[in-house]
Amino acid sequence: MVDIGLDRADIEALRRRLSSGASDLAHRALNRSVRLAVTGLNKSGKTVFITSLIHHLSHGSQLPFFKVASEGRLVGAKIIPRAESELPEFRYREFAEKLTGRPPSWPEPTDRISEIRLAIRYRPGTMLRRRVTPLSTLYLDIIDYPGEWLLDLTLLDKSFEDWSQQVLELCKQEPRASLSKAWFDFLNSLDLTKTAEEETMQQAAVLYSEFLHRCKAGGLTLLQPGRFTMPGDLKGTPILGFCPLPPVAAPPERSFYSIMSQRYEAYKDRVVKRFYQEHFSRFDRQIVLVDLFNILNRGYECFHDMRETLALTLESFSYGRSGLIRRLFRPRIDRVLFAAAKADHVAANQHHNLRLLLDQLISEAAEEVRFSGVEMDTMTLSSVKSTETVVTDHEGGKLSCVKGVPEGREREVLLFPGEIPETIPTPEDWVEDRFRFLSFQPPPVSEAPSRTLPHIRLDQALEFLLGDKLI
Amino acid sequence: MSHKHWIPPVEIESEPRQVRDKEKRKPSSPRVLAEEGERAFMDYLSKSEFTERDKNFPLERDIERLRQQTLRQRRRAFRWFWGAAAALLASLVVLDTVTFLGDMFERGLLLGLFFTGLFGLLLVAIVVWVREQMRDIWRMQDISAFQEEAKHLVEEGGHGTVTNLVARIETLYSNRSDLDPELEIFHSMVTDAHSDAEVLELFTKQVLRSLDERAYGVVVKYASQTALVTAISPLALLDAVLSLWRNMRMVREIATLYGGRPGFAGSFVLVRGVLGNLALAGVSEIIADTGAEAFGGTFLASLSAQAGQGASMGIYTARVGMITMRLCRPIPFSGEERPYLTRIRRQVIRAVREAMASASKPENQPRPES
Lengths: 471, 370
What we know:
The structure holds two protein chains of two kinds. Chain A is of the alpha/beta class. In chain A, 39% of the residues lie in helices and 15% in strands. In chain B, α7 packs antiparallel against α8, α8 packs parallel to α10 and α10 runs antiparallel to α11.
């Protein structure tokens, strides 16, 4: 069957995009509407970040570095249900109740794209604008999507052969070499020029998917295609039924190799391009959450892997892409914030080093992003501060520890988790048990209704992402 | 960086969870530490070494001390001169007094006692006054020390060392009831996670911002006053003297606002600082002024000669005021908070022009008669 390129789903999507685009355009012309994208790899804290953000915007207190709030101009924020949205709504109420409940607990991580719309009411700061309207409203759309999806951008200008070769190269090194054994053995047992059978293709895809999941469990992050580890609502569909294959000279028409190759192209077309054209090209601001503590706990390979992953992620934001990509979508993002999340896992005097570490991880790619006119910043933050910094005397010296109740325990613990290095450690520096970062339970919120969840630098993030829209 | 002296992670069980409050965190009591410590990490500690955590602070302190020492040595020559002169004067006065008293005692016991009592009172008054002036001078020096330390802490980018400085700055405002709400807000906003630079920024925003606005108002008020008086007064010499006196008053008011409270001697120290800065700032400000004019701001030349002179004096006063603000503020201005001369210039010139306009209207009335 010949693919004409446009099917009913495409037309529907186009129609929806145009209609919401029109009202968006009107709002945006008056600086009244902002689309903020929140992303990060799995378990980097996106859900908690958005919940905490909405919680604080509704209350408006304890945000000293967020100018609109500290100048007393923030009136409040309300969730507005969207009728014509094609994305599921972010379940704010459910997550907020978990965080402020008794006892409090962390919300489950999400693995699909969702959206929520807030109306932020505020008094304009400048005399001129105050005379026009005494009370202004900014419509903030927050879109939450898995960061793994950003890894697929580079697939768009790679052919199936190139991509397969790249993956297979990567699998020659540890730790991937041992993890991919099962999948490799299965591939070697097949004849790729034979006519394709659905079951074998499925099995190959499933084995590859399992390999990726094992890599992920081991802390690796450079896993392509992104949808395999984060399928969202594509789980189990045939469009994910492919995997990279060793090169074949001249594959016949309906062979295993060609069908897989076609599926790869279909994936690029239907899934990757659509994400970029429908969603990514409409983002105005972006925050990327990075959990460095998990990586530090794991070791050097994972660290190196993260660096590659972040470089790939950053490619999505630079305008200097090749012509093919540029023709597909023009990103509109003008501010990107890279945040080292969960900063409460470590004492506050380590935040400086943490930020330096993050800077070094993204330094090369960041240059190019900045060069294309996008404002970029790095920050260490914690959406919900679950520990306190304690400098204690121990054995004659001072140790900067954190105090909190670790997950799975009942009593408070004073933990010194290890010092954050200023520069990326070499493999020799990574001795067993150099870092021990623990997750902590969320803090209890007191009874008074005006008390808000404690945070670290959420207000500075808000100021960078939204400050210039709320003057 | 192959940091060979890193400290391995340790875990210490503390007491059961306490009620959360906004107090500064206290570390666990030593007793508990010692108990729990035996279990998990005695072998870690026996193997590890603790690194020097103060980074470069001691070294920099030494350099500072050396610098102060050399300065003091240079000043020693001056000090000897003034010290000798003062000692000479003091001994002459004492000799004179003693001779006088002796004379009085010869004339009669009561007379002698009376004059001795008077001299005694005078001495006590002088001592008390001198002590007050010294305290004022120290307070002015404190403020410049605060500025130095604040600048240093912001550059360092550290954490935790700023609480000492903030506590000391707050002693300046301990009796100021007008600042109580701002100080309370500041304390409620600061968390243990804020770095030194962030804490100082918070303090500036919450507490010093309102002081800055009030000081700016004071400067504008005095500058406009000086401008108007100079514009309409016929005697040049008289208003030169008057504006000098007005400048002194403005300087003292600004210093009091920021917590300095300069007395008689303190004012002299302050004025010396202001004059020094004035000389330095003169060239750049003149260039800025001329530049602003060339770019079509308000034109001084559009005013009459008299009014123009008034405006110049007003701007001069404004400049003095801004330098005073910069000297008296415990935390130095960062780029975006600085008061800008151009704004005050515009306000002063507008005030003078309005005054001239309202003054010239009744002038039109008597014309037909003359």
